[in-house]
Predict the 3D structure of the following.
Amino acid sequence: IVEEGVRSLRAGRTHYTSNFGTLELRRALSKHLERLYGLTYDPEGEILITVGASEAVAATMAALVDPGDEVILHEPSYVAYTPAVVFNGGTPVRVPTRFEDDFALDPSALEAAITPRTKVVFLGYPCNPTGAVLPEASLLAIADICARHDLLVVSDEIYDRLVYGGHQHRPFSTLPGARDRTVLIGGFSKAYAMTGWRVGWLCAPRALVEGIVKVHQYEIMSAPTTAQDAAVVALTTAEQDVQRMVNEYDRRRRMFVEALSRLGLATFEPRGAFYAFPRISGTGLTSQEFSERLLFEGQVAVIPGDSFGPSGSGHVRACYATSYERLEEAVGRIGRFLDTLG
């Protein structure tokens, strides 16, 4: 991937591409999604290459959400989702998820939140910050609800390749009746460790992409050309590297979650992304207090769970995307910090 980026620069590929992205990358992505999931998207008009998945989220919300529209989001969820709704005059309607349900969205709670003003259901699974995934039965129920209420779905699946414990990821747009109402979002930052390259994508029916690309072309023009060239190589040559990385993340995940539980911090088993979401309420500290004190007293950085929504209160997000040895050191420091709390 790096060598392709260097080659691209030395070949003078520093100009703009099509607003949609290079056709080579769109074709490679189309084949990739068909191979993995049986999904078919036309690279000529149903795929848009973006500056990371974050731009895909922002452009999609700008294109779909009008002032007063309600957008249903599960929480806790990634911090950028709610602002993307608010910036466009929409009203975020937050549906809490629970530790007892492994932070999976309850379809009945989703349906109860629907009003005549609801336009979009926004999903982010596998989930940042919890590591939660959606079971097949929940996916099917949510797809049925969205079809019955004629709702659009935006599904950010940036962590689709990072799943563990026998879980098989299923893109939302593969569900019965879902493709024509879904904007599927992904990228290269997580599965290919290309965070700084800033290249993501979205797939949707042509009529939806036509609206989203108008926002994209006036705000961005096109994703970085060099990053797009490198992304083609990622899709076509890096599958074994992805599998090795997933296996190593899984090894870290199992050790880290088990260690947190032994320390008395109840932690459900995260089956996606690279986060654990331990419950820290038993320490008598708030999420903010725990995070600040652990940082200054133990030199371990975690994020307060309620930064991601009220349902994250009493939890912290801990990322295991670092070396096994550093995670072992972090566990030791967390243990010593907990000992000081009595």
Q: What stands out?
A: The mean pLDDT is 97. The CA atoms of residues 166 and 203 lie 26 Å apart. Residues 2-238 form a domain with the Aspartate Aminotransferase; domain 2 fold (CATH 3.40.640.10). The chain has two domains: 2-238, 240-334.
